Structures are given as C-alpha cells and as structure tokens.
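Handoff note, outgoing to incoming analyst
You'll be picking up this chain. Sequence as last confirmed:
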Amino acid sequence: MAIISTTDFFTPVVDDPFHFGEIAAANALSDVFAMGGMPFNALNILGFPQGRLDAGLVAEILRGGAAKANEAGCLVSGGHTIQDNELKYGMAVNGIVHPQQIWRNNTVRPDDVLVLTKPLGTGAISTALKRDMAAAEDIIEISTGMKTLNKIPVELCRRLDINVHACTDITGYGLAGHLLEMLSGRYELAIEIFVDDLPLYRNARTYLNNYEFLPGGFYHNREFSIKKIISNTDLTDNHFNILFDPQTSGGLVLSMSANDAKKYLHHLKDVYPFNGWIIGRVRPSSESGLILVG
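Most recent structure output, in case you need it:
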C-alpha cells in the first residue's frame, strides 16, 4: 500500500455555494485519481471574511464538498478555517494505491495515444461568469463538468485491465502545460496534438475568442508553453487559445496503447457523462515538445 497526499484550494468559480463546494472538492480529489489511486480521507481548508458572509453560505460550501467527497468514497474528518478577506475553499486529501500500480505523469511511451476524459474551456467561461457576461446554459454546462469526479475513468481502467503508461489531470497550466509535463525529461519524444479534434464545451470557442474573457493564467501559460510548441503557425491566433486556457477540475489525460484506447473508449461512453476523445499521440522525435497537427 502506498499513500498519496495532495492539497488544492481556490476562490469561487461559480456563484452557487453548494456547487462551488462540489467543484473545489472534485478538483482536490482529482490529483489522487490522476495517480491511479482512490481517496479515503480529506480535511477541509476554508478561508472567509468572518461577519461579512452569511453563515448559511459557508455551510452550503462545506455541504457541497462533503457530498462530493462522499460520492468519491472519501471521509471528511475535519479541517481548518482562517479569517481571510477573500473566500477560499478546498481540501487536503489522502488516497491509497498499490505501489506497483502508481500512475506517473512523465512516463509516456512511443506510439501511445492520449485520451482526454472531459471537454476544455472552463477558464474563459468562468472568467466571463465573474464579469456577469456568461450565458446561464454555459454556466450550467461547465459546472456539471467541473463537479464530475475523475473516479469512474480510473475504475474503468482497472476493470478492463488497461495498461496506463502515464496520466495527468488538466488544471491550471492548461492543456499545453500539462502535456509538456508528460514529456518532462523525455528528450527523445514529442507529443502530436490533434488541434482540430480537441473537445470543447459547447460555446467555449466564443469566449476564447474574446480577450476580455481570457484569465490572467492564460498569458502565463502561453508564455511558458509557446517556446516548446513546434509549429509554423502563429500561435497567438485565437484558434489556439484553448491550448493555454487554465482549467478548473478538468479531465484526465491517459497515455496508453492504441488498442487499449479503442477498448477503453468503447466502454467509457456507457458509464461516464463524457465519451472521451483521442487528442494526440506520442512519437519519437529529435526535438522534444508539442507538435500541432490539424
């Protein structure tokens, strides 16, 4: 038995306090799932301006977190609160995994394909929400996606005996940043990204095309990642903004053989809200980085 310990917390990304609690918990739990483990214990982390928020609102956040932890099979056994001028919530989570079944994030293999389990675009849409400029149906859609646990994709891999060579979840560094993480230290490999096949939430492209809705993290992500993207195309074109959009509680990227991916996707659509998509492949290369393929 091996222990996975992780923590994550952030400011609200949606207005509904219960949904915010669910999303923050799902996001914190995700790091355990991304290593192939299952969470068993969590501690709440909460900062809020005492006396300036309705106590019922704070209770709803904690209730949302507890509900999502319960869905994950994880016991919330306490936590810690502090006074803070800005509301923040998240969890410290402990999980377990067999030592021989730990998924690393940088052990991709040549000819692997990359399977993504959730759509992209939460960064731009949630930024529009903060400015009261997001459509209600788009808020509902991303809220549903962000609070969806990454538990089922992991359990399905175990049930089907899928050999996952590497895994990461897509969060604040955006798709490009996390895929580069999968190549860290692998100077003989590159990842081809099938840019035109990347799954987006329904209206995400509209928000991504509006610079008013690009969060601050977008620019940091692009500055870091753009140096390691192999392309003859102008990557400041709006079409490529999805590569750098920071995600909240995003999906997993699982690196596996093409045969395993075919079997996995065939079954995933029957047990999970999202079908899953092949978004790229790993190939030998004299120049490590991301290669954009139309």
